[in-house]
Structure formats: structure tokens, C-alpha cells
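Database export, one record per block. Field names are fixed; values are copied verbatim from the stored entry.
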Amino acid sequence: MLWLGITLLLWAATAMVAYWFFFTPASQWLDNFNEHHASVIGPFFNDPPIEVATAKTKRALYMVEAGAFAVGLLVSQHPLFGFWALGLTLIGIRYFGKFLRQRAAERFDDQLVDVAMAFRNSLKAGLTLPQTMQMIATDFTPPASDQFRMCVREIQVGASIEEALQHLVERVPNADLRMMVGSVEILRQTGGNMVETFEGVAETLKNRKKVEGKIKTLTAQGRYQTLMLCAMPFVMLLILYAMNREYVRPLFSTFLGWLLLSLVVLLVVTGYIIINKITHIEV
């Protein structure tokens, strides 16, 4: 009886140590992770206000992560691969949020030449900068209209034009937009012809777009080869599974098989990242 009491006491102490030194920091990290990525992913799939969209997306992320852990645990019947599935899900969430932000930034980048031309034409017609922003927020399509609508609201509640444009650069990390905003700030401080400046900015953006299009054409083959090489191991696995299930079954029914599958996924992801960095050329 004494030994049973000592054993239970040791188990309780171990559980308390695990809770304080592992569970609490891990749960706090996971909560911050979901909060950050929900704020990125939420506005793309939910209507405003942003706080409600973030809360809904955060709950959905928790359910996806719990489902991934349960599926990994049930399929492999080993807790290690439940955490492995959870880790892959977290990586997928991170890159999915990055993909959505990059796609929105690319859409904004495609509109940037038209935005610069709208500034030039409006200023040439005698409109002020806030009036030009209001016109872009009204006449353009998202995401440019949404971003400049935020700028107009900030100016209406008391922010200066420079502060509103700086917040725009923070929301949309775009080198061309940063250059255009920097030009506006310098001209407002030192004086100058904004019409000629925006005309020069628009011409520069047009030439850069042409170069980017040529580079994308030249690197298209490398990008598609990357996708084919990364998909090939999994396609071959599906073919073998369809032809001879008993031959492939040890990969899904033994610890060593799951370990090899984990190694394959790790190597494929590493190769994709390396090749993607090689074929990605900054202009």
C-alpha cells in the first residue's frame, strides 16, 4: 500500500512538472500562433468586422489541428505520429497564410500602375491627395480600394496624410508602393511637381512589370519541374498501392514505415524550398 501511494505521488509530481514546464508554454505558443494566423486568414473568408472574422477563424484552426492530431493517432496508432500530423498541419497553416498574403500583395501590385496613373491624372485635374485617395477607394476594385478606404478613414479621424500612407506601407509590404509613398513624403516636405513625379513612378513600374513578366516566363519550366519532382514519390506510392497493397502495407502498419514516410516528406519539403529559392529572382 505504501509503494502504491509513493507511485501515485511520483506520477502526480511528474504530471505537475509536465504541466508547468511543457503544457503551459506549449498552449500559450499555440494560442499566439492561432491568433496571428487567424488575423491573416480570417479576412479572406469572413465578412468584417475583422475581430469577428479572426475569432471564427481561430476556432476553426483549433478544430483543424485537433482533427489532424486525431487522424494521425488513429491511422498510425502511435502518439508520436499524432504530433507529427499536428506539426505538418501547423506548417501548412503557416504557409497557407503566407500564400494568401502573397496573393493579395500580388493583386495589389498589379493595380499599382493604375493607382500611380490615377494619382497623376487627379492631381493634374486639381484634386488634392485625400480626394484622390477617396476616388481610388470608390472607383477601384479590391484590394486597392479597401486599402485606400482605410487611409481615407484614418485621415478623417485625425491622422496626417504621411501617417496614413505609412500605415498603408505597413499593411502591404511592397517595394514599389514604398518608393511611391517615399516620393510623396519628400515632395510634401521639400516641394515639387507631384504630377511629373507620379508620371515617372508609373513609367518605372511599367518597365519593371515587363522585366518581371520575362523572368516568370524564363523560370516557368523550373517551377513546373519542381512541382512534378515533389509530387512524383507520392504518385508512385499511390500507383504501387493500387497494384499491390500488401507490398505497400508495411509503410502504414509499422513504426519503421511511418518513420520512412516522415523522412520522405521532410526531404521533399526541403528540396521544394531549396529549388523554389533558386528559381525565385528578385527584380
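Remark 1: Residues 2-77 form one domain.
Remark 2: The CA atoms of residues 43 and 50 lie 6 Å apart.
End of record.
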